[in-house]
């Protein structure tokens, strides 16, 4: 009996399974679909694409560069008026010009590298706010001590041009990069040269404070336009501010293109500063017997060279950068020859100034193009190293020119400028061909 039950057990189990299946199928209205599990793939993080550089944006950066850099130079023709208002000597009030330049150098070192660490547009707008506060502080300063502090802050905050230059290089296409840099740099030099003329004119008519009220209004207007039109550029550096500053040393050690550009720029600006520091003394002597107004008017003449330098970016497509820089250094040398042989005539000085400005700005544009082309994602830090060296050279040229003038008058100054030019030429011939982009 037990054997018979075991024989029918498999058939009974099959019957029960079929019956269960038939019962379940009658009660089901729709078949049950197995859940589909989609595999989610995490996309790699990529930084937002940079917007293209439009002509309007380039013009805005160029104008802003020229107007902002003028804040550093408005005071020079106004020092006499300030001295009378505060009842101090001309020697003491001249510290304003020095403190403004010291502030600019420190701002260049401490603020500009932040362009690689934080959002560029946000940094620029915050700095505009600080510039406005500094300019207002200058106009309401109750004592000369407060005026010194406000002047230092004007220089410290008015470093935006050195944020706009690398920004133009980053947003421009590779083919138009040199042209974009050249345009912004022309705005920079025009601002330096023409700000003295404008402030002297305004100061003579309405007083020195009115110039700073006008400058404040210009900053408010520009800040609004920047907030409206300037595209955002996201940071490329991930790390702390301390590591950001250490990276300046690392870039200097590891990038020969940057070192060569910094040395050439420092030597060129040293000669440039030597000339402009002593020009007013030279014009006061025979045969000119002219004053500061005539010396200031040479700034307009120098603007011709600055405008011509804007064309360098266009010819860079057809001529090798090495040859353009060599031609620029030769122009610097020719200018010093003219200052030596024709320095006692207005014609010699005028032609020499045009060559000096054209040569320096052409070399300056190509210097910056050389290290921006490295595409290291560190344009602001590269520019900081370059411009800091640039102003160190300018300070050295100013000091040596003053010593040369005391010992040998104009001929001594010409000798200083010519030696600096020879040093730039030697470095370029020795190392210019061995670097990839210079």
From TrEMBL:
Keywords, ordered alphabetically: Membrane, Transmembrane, Transmembrane helix
InterPro entries, per database record: MFS, MFS_dom, MFS_trans_sf
GO MF entries: transmembrane transporter activity
Domain of life: Bacteria
Transmembrane spans: 56-73, 93-112, 124-141, 179-198, 210-228, 261-282, 288-312, 319-341, 347-365, 385-402, 408-431
Domain annotation Major facilitator superfamily (MFS) profile: ranges: 57-436
UniProt-listed SUPFAM superfamilies: MFS general substrate transporter
Protein name (Swiss-Prot/TrEMBL): Predicted arabinose efflux permease, MFS family
